């Protein structure tokens, strides 16, 4: 018998039992909905006074006023474009201000350096 031999031999695990003892998983969907009360209907929500329902993977207006929705959509797109243009203008202004700040900072550092050199030069003369 070796000192570090392979004496470990685990027992064989028994087969697993069914996870669920219920036979509801064998029923078809409609029977399950009736048995378990899983019929929820279509999801609906109210957003900004507009009632919407979820059908075929898309949110659809329940009121059916598509003409009003299109006008509102056009207005929102126009407003979005205006805000994007304003945002671009403001970004440009920020870039210009940052350039001006960095230029002024560089000039200030150069002036401070020149002032220190003049002070050193004056101090040596005395």
* Order of strands across the main sheet: 1-2-3
Question: How would a crystallographer describe the biggest sheet?
Answer: 3 strands, antiparallel
**In total, how many domains does the architecture comprise?**
2
Helix and strand run: HEEEH
Overall pLDDT: 81
Strand content: 5-15%
Regions with little confidence, pLDDT below 50 for 5+ residues: none
Distance between the termini: 97 Å
Derived structural class: mainly alpha
Helix content: 40-55%
Q: Can you count the helices?
A: 2
Count of individual beta strands: 3
Oligomeric state: single chain
Report the principal-axis shape: flat
Q: Measured on Cα atoms, how large is the radius of gyration?
A: 38 Å
What are the defining features of this structure?
3 strands, single chain, Protein chibby 1, 2 helices, Chibby_fam, coiled coil, 11% strand, mainly alpha, 126 residues, three-stranded antiparallel beta sheet, 2 domains
Describe this entry's structure for a reader.
With 126 residues, the protein is mainly α. The chain has two domains: 24-63, no CATH class; 64-125. Helices cover 54% and strands 11% of the residues. It has helices at 29-36, 66-125, and strands at 44-47, 50-55, 58-61. It has a three-stranded antiparallel sheet, with no helix packed on it. A hairpin with a 2-residue loop joins strand 1 (44-47) and strand 2 (50-55).
Topology, element by element:
Blueprint: H1 29-36, E1 44-47, E2 50-55, E3 58-61, H2 66-125
Organism: Lamprotornis superbus
Protein name: Protein chibby 1
Keywords: Coiled coil
């Amino acid at each position: 018998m070796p000192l570090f031999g392979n004496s470990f031999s685990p027992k064989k695990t028994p087969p697993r039992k069914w996870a669920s003892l219920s036979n509801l998983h064998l029923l078809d969907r409609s029977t399950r909905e009736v048995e378990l009360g899983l019929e929820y209907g279509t999801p609906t929500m109210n957003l900004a006074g507009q009632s919407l329902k979820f059908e075929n993977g898309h949110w659809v207006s329940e009121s059916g006023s598509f003409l009003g929705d299109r006008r509102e959509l056009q207005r929102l797109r126009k407003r979005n474009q205006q805000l994007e243009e304003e945002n671009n203008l403001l970004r440009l202004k920020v870039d210009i201000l940052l350039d001006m700040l960095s230029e002024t900072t560089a000039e200030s550092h150069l002036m401070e350096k020149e002032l220190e050199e003049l002070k050193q030069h004056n101090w040596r003369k005395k």
